[in-house]
């Protein structure tokens, strides 16, 4: 499902205009980006948790040449599924 399909599905389910849903999703995106920039954790109970994490510097290896390379420290984003998403995923047969 892409963004347009998501907007359409939410608009239909909530019985609101697609433009309103699109504006809400845009606002959500902006708030998530700003929160991550500030180092805050964003948790929507039962759905998702998003937080900034730090990866320390380490030594890696080029798989083609076997040469060692230094990988610098970096910030990353960690996204964790909430209980409702985990339950939905586990209910689908493999």
Structural class: alpha+beta
CATH-assigned fold name of the largest domain = HU Protein, Chain A
Instruction: Please give the number of β-strands.
Output: 5
- For this structure, what is the CATH homologous superfamily of the largest domain? IHF-like DNA-binding proteins
General form: elongated
Radius of gyration: 19 Å
Overview of this protein structure:
It comes from Geodermatophilus normandii. Belongs to the bacterial histone-like protein family. InterPro entries: Hist_DNA-bd, IHF-like_DNA-bd_dom_sf. One of its GO terms (molecular function) is structural constituent of chromatin. It is a single chain. This protein has helices at residues 3-14, 18-38, 83-90, and strands at 42-44, 48-55, 58-61, 68-71, 74-81. By secondary structure, it is of the alpha+beta class. It folds into 2 domains: 1-40; 41-94, HU Protein, Chain A (Irregular). Strands 1-2-5 form a 3-stranded antiparallel β-sheet. Strands 3-4 form a two-stranded antiparallel sheet. Helix 1 crosses helix 2 (18-38). The model has no long low-confidence stretch (mean pLDDT 96).
């Amino acid at each position: 499902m892409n963004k347009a399909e998501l907007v359409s599905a939410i608009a239909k389910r909530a019985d609101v205009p697609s433009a309103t849903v699109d504006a809400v999703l845009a606002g959500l995106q902006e708030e998530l980006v700003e929160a991550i920039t500030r180092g805050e954790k964003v948790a929507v109970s039962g759905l998702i948790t998003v937080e900034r994490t730090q990866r320390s510097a380490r030594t890696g290896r080029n798989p083609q040449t076997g040469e060692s390379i230094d990988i610098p420290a970096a910030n990353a984003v960690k996204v964790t599924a909430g209980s409702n998403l985990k339950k939905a995923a586990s209910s689908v047969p493999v």
